[in-house]
Amino acid sequence: MFDRIMLLSMFLLTASTGIALYRVMKGPTVHDRILALDSIGYIVIGIVAVHSIMLDSRAYLETILLIGILAFLSTVALSKYMEGGIVIGTKSDD
User: Helix axis angle, 30-55 relative to 61-84, nearest 10°?
Assistant: First the structure.
């Protein structure tokens, strides 16, 4: 029974990744596309976590942490770029 629930959750996470990829390609605005990319990052975290539970292993916990940090930083960088066109540094008045 537990294996079936884990497989169902993997299927649903994979389906939600497909939906988010559709939003990345057809999103009405750039901001929707950025949020869809962020969602894909966190869905991948869910997939890795379910896979780790299925294997009864703690080996993937560092991978989950790394994906989470990268997803957060990429969202912040993309949002900052959309806000002012520059990610690191300040605008010069030249």
Answer: 180
Q: Which amino acid, 55?
A: L
Domain membership of residue 20 as a residue range: 2-82
Compute the Cα dihedral for 28, 34, 35, 36 and give only its sign. positive
- Nearest CA-CA partner of 75 in 42, 34, 16: 34
The pTM for the full model equals: 0.82
Specify the residue for token string 């292993």. 57
Does residue 94 surpass a pLDDT of 90? no
The pLDDT-based confidence of 79 (bands split at 50, 70, 90) is: confident
| CA angle (23 as vertex; 21, 29 as ends), nearest 5 | 140
The number of domains in the chain is: 1
